[in-house]
Structures are given as structure tokens and as C-alpha cells.
Amino acid sequence: MEAMLFYLVALVSVISAFFVTKCRNPINSALCLVTTFLCLAVFYVMLQAPFMAAIQIMVYAGAIMVLIIFVIMLLNIGSVGKSRYTHGVAGAIVLSFLSFIVAAKFIAGGTVSKAVGDISAEVVQSYGHTELIGKAMFTEFLLPFEIASILLLVAIVGAVILSKRKV
Amino acid sequence: MVMTPEVLTLSNNPILFTVAMLAKILVAFAVTMLIVAYATWVERKVIGRMQTRMGPTMTGPKGLLQPIADGLKLFFKEDIIPAEASKFAFILAPMMLLGPALISIAVIPFGGDLTIGNYIIPLQITDLNVGVLYILAMAGLGVYGIVLAGVASNSKYSLLGGIRSTAQMVSYELAAGLSIIAVFMLSETLSMRGIVAAQQGPLWGFEALSLIPNWYIFTQPLAFGLFVVGSMAEINRTPFDLPEAETELVSGFCTEYSSMKYALFFMAEYANMITVSAIAATLFLGGWGGVFWGPVNFLLKVFGFMFFFIWIRATFPRVRYDQLMFIGWKVMLPLSLANIVLTAIAVLLWQ
Questions:
Q1: What are the b/e assignments for B1-16, b being 16+ CB within 10 Å?
Q2: Cβ neighbours of residue B11 under 8 Å, at least 6 residues apart?
Q3: Where are the domains of chain A?
Q4: What is the pLDDT of residues B39-90, one digit of tens each?
Q5: pLDDT digits over B198-244, tens only?
Q6: Would you say B114 and B44 are in contact if contact means Cβ atoms under 8 Å apart?
Q7: Largest CB tally within 10 Å, which of A119, B145, B197, B323?
């Protein structure tokens, strides 16, 4: 049952990811990307990470993609003609083939049952996924968390300086 | 043989579980759609009375058949898709607006437990342990409806409406979302059912205050105000209905729409209003807790909120765009952040 659902969602996500690059109209491409994000959220739910699923939809589908569509809307990008970058296509084929080999090697090398650690599916069920993430983020991974927030602060200040010449 | 009742799940009785689930979904959906239809009637009647008019009177007794007449009229109108519009997105937009509003209802508890035989059936479609985040995520998806309608229509009024709406929704979503954080700092759970359970009993657990329920509106009045104002802006109700300001933008993002697609935008507006009222009732007014039977309490609170929204619409003029951005970013966002800090300090001191 779960495997069937996985293959179904995986199929949808791969097809929509394909159409992200295939669509001529940028708005349709953006919508396909949203579909891919929603499929990723379903994967997070299947991996017993409901918090990540909700954040995936909230941040990627809800905020970032809306901003991308906003930019498309403001710049008024129309449909683009057929691209002539054949060497680009060839490069993409080679690159995706190589990454497929890497992915296949990883898949062949490990199974889910080999995963070790304190946090199992039962722990997540009893303790709550959000609590686990929160606790880990503010104790074990406090330094990366703070560094990320400083990085974001720098980005915000940079955006303000770029958009406002006279402060 | 007497058994203690257990919670009905897919594993202990699959058939009854499926039937109960379908029944709950059907009832929740039917009730929501019924409220959507009659909210339009109530809105016209109430606003009419507030402006010393009668409102609809001709269709049926006291105009009660007006929603049906409106629906039929829109249904039989010609459906026009502009030639230059991006067709796929144009058709998708109204659905993208109505869909998230309706699926948010899935995590809202509308009653206590129902015991049938040996099984306990919670009166809630599903209890996610990230319920609040799910609702915020769905609110985020709701923006797409208006954005797509704005872009796909290929008309300058629609585009301007769409741009205004995106900016408005993104800014107010932040304030409304941050105000909820203070609530689940107190409840210590993200599940909607857990939040309702945390609001039962007397205020702050003092027996002396047993007349006042432990609702978060008393503990978090600022968060409540911020959430109501923020969600009013998020669902584009007056005084924040700039995306469809008639005097400036014809009718904003739905200018090019006709027939049932136009009706869907209106249904989405009322469905959003119901969802927001239900969320506010659950988070701040103790959900289904109260003097009557659970669902009755809950519906009363939802109706109260909807009346409040209609009342606001009849009372306040529309805000200007710069005022809107000022309130959102310079008043509401700092206030909700300050509220989080204050709540955190209070929670620490209490422990």
C-alpha cells in the first residue's frame, strides 16, 4: 500500500519536474515546480517527518514560489521560443547520467534497515517530530542554527541597502 | 461482556472507520457549503439593516431563496475565457482559491468524542500533530488562487489586483502566523485537539475563577487581536479588500471571470471566512467547549465571528495601500514578535 503510494507520488513528481523544464510558459513551469514541492511534502510525511512536510509547503510552495511567480508577473515574461542551445542539452544529458550513476550507487550500497541512531519511528510517534527537531536544533545544532540566522540577517541588510540607496 | 471503549482506528475496525470517516467528511463539507450559501444571504440582510435598507426580500420568504437564485443565475451565464489568457492557469485559479480553504477544515475539531458501542469517534476529520502548521501551510497555498487569476487573465486590472494581493497576503500571513506561536507556546502542542483540551477548565487552573473558562482570548488578548486583524487581511475582507477595490481596479483579480468561475471566487471568500472563524474559535475561544453540546458550541462561536466580520464590513472604510503596508510591517509584526518574547518570559517564570 505504502510502496504503491510512493511510486504514484514519485511518478507525479518526476513528470512535473520534467514539465518544469518543458513548459514554454513560465507560469506553467512555476506551477509544475509547485506540484513537485507538494510531492516532496508527501515524501516527508511518508518518512514520518510531518513537521518537515508542513514547513516544505509553507516555505517553498507558500512563500518562495509565490515570490517567483510575483517576479514573473512583474517582469511580464512571455512564452519563450525553442532554445537552440544543443550543446547545453548534451551537457545536461551527460550530467544527469552521471548523477544517476551516483544515485544508483548510493541506493545499491545501503538499505533502510541499516540506518542506526537513537531516533526510530517509535520514538518519533511517542515523542513528536516537532519536539525532536526543536530540541536538537537548540541544543546539539545551536551553532549552525545561529550561523544560518546571521547569514539571513546579512541577506536582509544587503537587500535593504540594494533597494534603498539613501538610508 | 463489558469492554472499555477504545479510539476507533483503521486497524481495530476498518469498515466502521471508513464509514465514520466518510460520514465526518461529508457532514463537514455539507455544513460548510450550506454556511457558505447562507452567509451571502446573512451578509446582505445584515448590511442592509445596518444601512437602513431591507436587503433581499423578493425571493422566497424573507428572501431566503436568494442564494439559490444567485447560484442558478451564475450557473446559466455564459462562461468566457479571454482569448489572450493563459487557459490552464485561468481555469485552475478559482479552484486553487477554494481548495485550500476547504481542506483546512480537515484538522479543525468540531466536537468532543462520540461513543458508539465500544469505539470512541473523535468529532474531527483528522488530528494531525502538526495541525497548526498545516493550517498555516494551506493559508500559504491560498495565495496562488489570486496570483494565478491576476497573471492568467492577461488584463492590467487583474494584474494590479494580483500584485496587491500577493504583497498583502505575504505580509499579513507573517503577522497572523507569529501571533499563533504565542498560543502554542502555552498549549505545548501543535495539534488542534490538544489546543482545545488545554483550554478546558477554569482560568489558569484557579478554582476561584471557575466562572471564566481557560480560553486563550483571556491569556493572549494581543495575539487574538493580531490574529483576527491579520486573517481579515489575509482573506481580503473589508477593510482590507484592496485587491478588488472597485473604484480603482474594476473588480481586481476577478475582472475577467464570468459564470461559475466568478461564483467560485465568491464561494472561496466565504469559505475562507468560515475557515478563519473556525480557526479563531478553536485557538482562542476554547473550540467546542461550552455549555451546550460540542458541535453546537462550536457553530455558535463560528457564527459569532462571521457576524463580527460582516459588522466590520458595514462599519469601516477601506484602508489605503500605504496604510496597509504600514500596519502590517511596522505595527503588527513588531507587536507579534514582542508578544512572543513576553509570553516566553511569562512561561519561564511560571515554571
A1: eeeeeeebeeeebeee
A2: none
A3: 1-78, 119-167
A4: 888 888 888 888 888 888 888 788 888 888 888 888 888 888 887 777 788 8
A5: 887 776 666 666 667 778 888 888 889 999 888 888 887 778 777 66
A6: no
A7: B145
Other Cβ atoms less than 10 A from the Cβ of B61: the count is 7
Q: How far is residue B206's CA from residue A104's CA, in Å, rounded to a whole number?
A: 62
- When CB atoms are compared, the residue of B88, B141, B147 closest to A69 is B147
- Which whole-number Å values give the CA distances from B322 to A72, A119, B185, B225, B313, in the listed order? 23, 49, 33, 21, 20
**Structural contact between residues A15 and A38, judged by C-beta atoms closer than 8 angstroms:** no
Nearest CA to CA, how far is B160 from chain A (Å)? 10
User: A–B: how many Cβ contacts below 8 A?
Assistant: 77
Q: Where are the domains of chain B?
A: 81-110+127-350
CATH number of A1-78: 1.20.120.1200
The CA R_g of chain B, rounded to the nearest whole Å, is 21
Q: Which residues of A touch B143 (CB under 8 A)?
A: 62, 66
Pairwise CA distance, residues B142 & A26, whole Å: 20
